[in-house]
Write a structure and sequence with these properties.
Elements lengths: L7 E7 L7 H12 L3 E7 L5 H10 L3 E4 L4 H7 L2 E2 L1 H6 L4 E5 L2 E5 L2 H13 L6 E5 L3 H13 L4 E5 L3 H13 L3 E4 L10 E4 L15 H7 L3 E4 L8 H8 L3 E3 L2 H16 L5 H12 L2
Parallel strand pairs: 1-2, 1-3, 4-6, 7-8, 7-10, 8-9, 10-11, 11-12
Antiparallel strand pairs: 3-5, 5-6
């Protein structure tokens, strides 16, 4: 990657962010199209994120945003999309005609990947693990793919779970805190927590829970070489499962189009991610 005085700087910003394959797939796409740009991974605390983001955007750059800054990114967007307004979460920022533009490309990416994983089967009930910005994208994405779907949200913090369920209902999504009923049957289990990013992390759900819930499929938004522990548990139980690489590529390709104004070479981006995650 050669950086010139004219090179446009783009980045994924989060904390942690060292695991992110966004630079890998975006730089592959940039090279394939011969663009004068470079995509980096930058770590920022909650305190430094706004300053860093505004500096890159003021220089004509663009950002993908990951944990824990999607809510702060939504607040920065001066021209937010409808999905940003509805979700309160933003994962793509770029200089727009009317100030900083923001979108949530996670929502359609989740809808597409979940539908592919279900392979034509309808989702009536989903067990959703997590309450952050990624979980909001899951809620809206699943409601878009399967209108009327019910979400049972699991949170380690009862207050956050209740707050999420309230937000979801106000957004038109059927949702309740799972509480003691998290073992009820579900068609789909989605992990929208960061559990699994660290090599020593336990899986966000164990084999016993999967056996009781008996889902048709499991979608883990975390990705890892060879698949995550949750994916391994699900497949070991004969359940269709996928980690977050498909969502990563889908949201990244949509973001690329917004950043550069040209269609993304999605298959090149996918190949770069698959190569990086090969065991």
């Amino acid at each position: 990657m050669r950086i010139r005085a004219t090179t446009r700087l783009l980045a994924v910003v989060g904390d942690p962010v060292g695991h992110s394959l966004s630079p890998t797939m975006h730089n592959a796409a940039i090279a394939a199209l011969g663009l004068d740009a470079a995509f980096l991974a930058l770590r920022a605390s909650r305190e430094t994120f706004p300053v860093l983001a505004k500096s890159i955007l003021a220089a004509g750059g663009a950002l993908n945003v990951t944990v824990p800054h999607k809510g702060a990114a939504a607040a920065l967007a001066e021209s937010p999309s409808d999905l940003v307004r509805r979700s309160g979460a933003c994962n793509a920022l770029w200089p727009g005609v009317a100030g900083i533009a923001g979108d949530n490309t996670d929502v359609p990416a989740v809808a597409r990947e979940a539908a592919a994983l279900m392979d034509g089967r309808r989702v009536h009930r989903t067990l959703l693990l997590g309450t952050g910005g990624a979980a909001r994208a899951v809620a809206l994405g699943l409601a878009e793919a399967w209108p009327g779907v019910e979400l049972a949200v699991v949170s380690r913090d009862a207050g956050r779970g209740a707050e999420f369920a309230k937000w979801a209902r106000e957004a038109g999504v059927r949702c309740r805190v799972s509480g003691d009923r998290k073992d009820e049957p579900a068609d789909l289990v989605v992990n929208a927590t960061p559990l699994g990013l660290g090599p020593d992390d336990p899986p966000p759900a164990d084999a016993a829970l999967l056996a009781r819930v008996a889902p048709a499929a499991v979608l883990d938004l975390v990705y890892a070489k060879g698949g995550t522990k949750l994916v391994a548990l699900a497949r070991g139980a004969g359940i269709r499962a996928a980690d977050g690489r498909g969502v990563l590529v889908a949201q990244g390709a949509a973001s690329f189009g917004l950043f550069f104004g040209v269609p993304a070479p999605e298959e090149i981006m996918r190949a770069a991610v698959e190569d990086a995650l090969r065991p």
